[in-house]
Specification:
The structure is a homodimer of 243-residue chains. Chain A is mostly helical and 243 residues long. The first copy, chain A, contains ten helices and two strands; from the N terminus they run H-H-H-E-E-H-H-H-H-H-H-H. Helix content of chain A is 71%, strand content 3%. At the A-B interface, helix 3, helix 5 and helix 8 of A face helix 3, helix 5 and helix 8 of B. Chain A binds a DNA duplex (30 and 30 nucleotides) through helix 3.
Chain lengths: 243, 243
DNA sequence: TAAGTCTCATTTATATTATAAAAAGCGCCA
DNA sequence: TGGCGCTTTTTATAATATAAATGAGACTTA
């Protein structure tokens, strides 16, 4: 949902404003006419943007009652656009922990399946992901992109459409997660070894081992985040500089 | 996305046609003017419907090139609307297996978390789900609804927004799953006992046990589906009446 | 002949205006 | 006081005009 044209641009801006909490019960969405003025757009373009956000669970429009932001539990958080908007402007350690928690369940499941059903092409993609991570370690590839490529390859290799669907979600989450936790400083080597254990298990068809290796990998990431947060809390208490 | 008004009705119809494979590379979506005629709608209403489907990953429209169905891997399968459309018209054992597979990873994860963090209200909802299942067994409640209520309560009790987001998905999937596998014929009692084990573990705060109990529960459902499918395959081979 | 450029036609994108439908709020009346 | 019906506001739909994008084919030129 890039700003390739006016409608998409409005959807983007409005989407960000909504998920960052600009509108609520006491500060509702302006009526169509005002929104048109605000974005300098016609009703057609604006209404189409609003309909896109409605489809993603962010808005609800009814005649005479106006257009309202839906309660947060109706937002389609698994939609990469929605998740992206949320992450782009609103840093939240809680959110980071929450999606690492769900990755802790999902990715081992995908790895287990992948070990059972992955074909030659899918296995090649996983192997290639590991190679890219190794290349990144030598400075020949991007560490973030290669990491994401590996996790996406595993999800795809599960040959399950719902896991495959989570690639967009995972890629967005991972990009944000890694950027904010900002690893790649010495942890890299150990991390590659852990990733390689997962890959080896999948390639060898050892389903249980693959799941377990993936679980450990993500559990480590979760522990790291929690430790960091605790640390920052301590610093805040001590009056130190924490973000 | 009910047919509350014209635009939503068009989105529904078109959505079903798309996911059931009416349109493809060799049979592309008609141009706007033709679609308007087909649905007896104005361009405004039609375009708004198309934009909703675009937001859900089903369509992509560009000037001069027309509007095309996106490749299936871009469909937002975790969106309850999209999943519902897929299930409503297109029975698919493969799909049933696939979403039971992902439930096998997700729901134990949610149960584990729930055991750690569920508050009084969330615990009450889980207890109530069990009570409803028991009531259904006596004929005093709906077996399908009570089953769904229990699983939804566990997801919510995880206090994780991404798990909570999957309630819509799970409810849709479960409704379809149970209807087609059509249990509730003697299996019921054993099923309630298994559900109660999950609930007890969560209520007692035994996280690992809760996850494991949930895993067993869903693994049983998965085995049942696979056995059924194998059975039907056998019948088909034997020339018997399948489905 | 071949490669590049230009023009034109087609289709979606946006704008504008008018009318319909829904529903909240108010006032009238019994 | 309570219910009924008008009025007004806001979204829903319609109809039409213009803009922008782009694919295809013609045209130009080396």
């Amino acid at each position: 949902m890039q700003g390739q044209n006016l409608t998409y641009g409005i959807a983007n801006e409005l989407g960000i404003e909504i998920v960052t909490g600009v509108y609520s019960a006491d500060n509702p969405i302006p009526i169509e006419a005002q929104l048109c003025r605000k974005y300098g757009a016609s009703r057609s373009a604006l209404r189409e943007a609003v309909k896109m956000l409605t489809a993603k669970g962010l808005l609800d429009a009814r005649p005479r009652r106006g257009t309202w932001v839906q309660p947060e539990e109706k937002w389609n958080l698994l939609d990469p656009d929605v998740l992206g908007w949320l992450l782009e402007r609103k840093y939240s350690p809680a959110l980071l922990i929450e999606f690492t928690e769900i990755r802790l369940a999902v990715e081992p499941g995908a790895a287990t399946l992948a070990a059972r059903v992955a074909g030659p092409q899918e296995k090649a993609a996983i192997r290639h992901g590991i190679e890219r991570m190794q290349a990144a370690d030598r400075g020949d590839d991007d560490p973030l992109d290669s990491d994401i490529a590996f996790h996406v390859a595993v999800l795809r290799a599960s040959r399950n459409r719902f896991y495959a669907q989570l690639t967009g979600f995972t890629a967005t989450a991972l990009r944000f997660s890694i950027q904010t936790t900002n690893r790649y400083k010495g942890v890299q080597l150990a991390s590659i070894a852990d990733h390689k254990k997962v890959a080896d298990a999948i390639l060898a068809g050892r389903a249980v081992a693959a799941g377990e290796a993936m679980r450990k990998l993500i559990q480590e990431a979760l522990d790291l985040i929690c430790k960091r947060e605790a640390l920052q809390a301590t610093r805040r208490l001590a009056g130190g500089s924490a973000r």
